[in-house]
Design goal:
single chain, 206 residues, mainly beta, five-stranded antiparallel sheet, 2 helices
């Protein structure tokens, strides 16, 4: 951890508290708060987002073309747009780095990088429940449990269910668009193999 005032990179960092205060539920909501970040849903594909940073980006998901704005979840690169619309739950922080990031993140970040860091298991037994309701029949329920599983082993399990009716309506057909229907989960195991080695295993599903 470091102060963004001391880091020699144009970066916007958001903690869990800031994400909650700004009502950022998925990565696409970042376009409302991050300077110079433009984006939207890919045409006809709700799980894919297009991002532009410093005029670098692409609006189609092409099997042979890496997005100029890379998305990383816990240091794992999301190689294509098809699944880069990430639901944000149990997140420690998000970092948006503007400009080429080839030194730290490789060649797939000519415009910039979205770096998502999940929470780690805790030393003590903790738990949390979250409930959100809103207009357009918005309903969201999340639950987390974290703590020790044995000698040198800690675990964390988070589940999320999120639903919302479409916010746009076709006046001819009556059909609504931009609805949400998400079910996601994450399991994290942290193993203290020695004083100098920690093994972290994560499984995500959405």
């Amino acid at each position: 951890e470091a102060s963004v005032q001391d880091v020699p990179i144009a970066v916007s960092a958001y903690s869990e508290e800031m994400l909650d205060r700004l009502q950022i539920d998925d990565t696409l909501d970042l376009i409302n708060v991050v300077p110079n970040l433009f984006g939207g849903n890919n045409t006809g594909l709700g799980t894919a987002n297009m991002y532009y940073l410093r005029a670098q980006g692409n609006d189609e998901s092409i099997s042979t073309f890496d997005p100029p704005v890379g998305t990383y979840v816990d240091d794992v690169y999301i190689t294509r747009q098809n699944v880069n619309n990430v639901a944000l739950f149990d997140v420690e922080r998000i970092e948006v780095l503007r400009g080429p990031q080839g030194v730290l993140f490789g060649r797939n970040s000519a415009g910039g990088t979205l770096n998502i860091i999940s929470k780690m298991p805790t030393e003590d037994l903790t738990g949390a429940l979250g409930l959100t309701v809103g207009n357009y029949e918005k309903r969201s329920l999340s639950g987390t449990i974290s703590g020790p599983l044995g000698a040198g082993v800690r675990g964390r399990l988070t589940l999320l269910a999120n639903q919302r009716d479409g916010i746009y309506r076709d006046v001819v057909s009556g059909r609504r668009y931009q609805n949400e229907d998400n079910l996601a989960g994450r399991l994290t195991l942290a193993i203290d193999a020695s004083d100098r080695l920690e093994i972290v295993l994560r499984a995500d599903a959405s």
